[in-house]
Amino acid sequence: MADTDPVENPNIYRAISKRRWYVAAEQRVLSAAFMRREGERGISVLKRDGCSVNVCLAGLGTCEGEFILETLQVLALGLSLWDDEPDNPQFNENHAEILGLPPYENPREAEDAATPLAAMARLHYDRHNNY
């Protein structure tokens, strides 16, 4: 795996697959948006934005929009950010993963790790203009 270059990718984007990840009245991202599920290696992110009402670059069936985070802030938390492997059959040059988060099955650890990510994330795009 190759490190995601923070100079080339100063921001990363997290697709919003669940509307409940964001509290619009408070303009606050919830830690649930950054919980790693068991069996997952990391949290999926995109290196470039470009989602639209008709296209979800993350390939989700249901996509509510995306959050934006500064790459260097994520790395400053001691987490890793890795590009997809080119030899992986599911390779996507726009996809990376945040690694180093405990799985959701360790609730206290998962919450402690996800909270700073949620605090630094902000709404970048609402695909339905409903927030």
Distance between the termini: 36 Å
Ranges with pLDDT <50 over ≥5 residues? none
Oligomeric nature of the chains: single chain
Total of domains: 1
Structural class: alpha+beta
What portion of residues is helical? 10-25%
Order of helices and strands: EEEEEHEEHE
Please state the average pLDDT score. 88
Report the β-strand fraction as a percent range.
Answer: 25-35%
Radius of gyration: 14 Å
Report on the biggest sheet.
3 strands, antiparallel
User: Strand order, biggest sheet?
Assistant: 1-5-8
Tell me the number of strands.
8
Please tell me what the overall shape is.
globular
Q: Give the count of helical stretches.
A: 2
Would you write up a description of this structure?
The protein is α+β, with helices and mostly antiparallel strands and 131 residues long. It has one domain (11-126). Helix content is 15%, strand content 26%. The chain is built from two helices and eight strands; from the N terminus they run βββββαββαβ. The protein has helices at 71-76, 107-120; strands at 11-16, 22-23, 28-29, 43-46, 65-70, 80-83, 95-99, 122-126. The strands form three sheets. A three-stranded antiparallel sheet has the order 1-5-8. Strands 4-7-6 form a three-stranded antiparallel sheet. The chain starts with 10 loop residues before the first strand and ends in a 5-residue tail after the last strand. The relative contact order is 0.28. The model has no long low-confidence stretch (mean pLDDT 88).
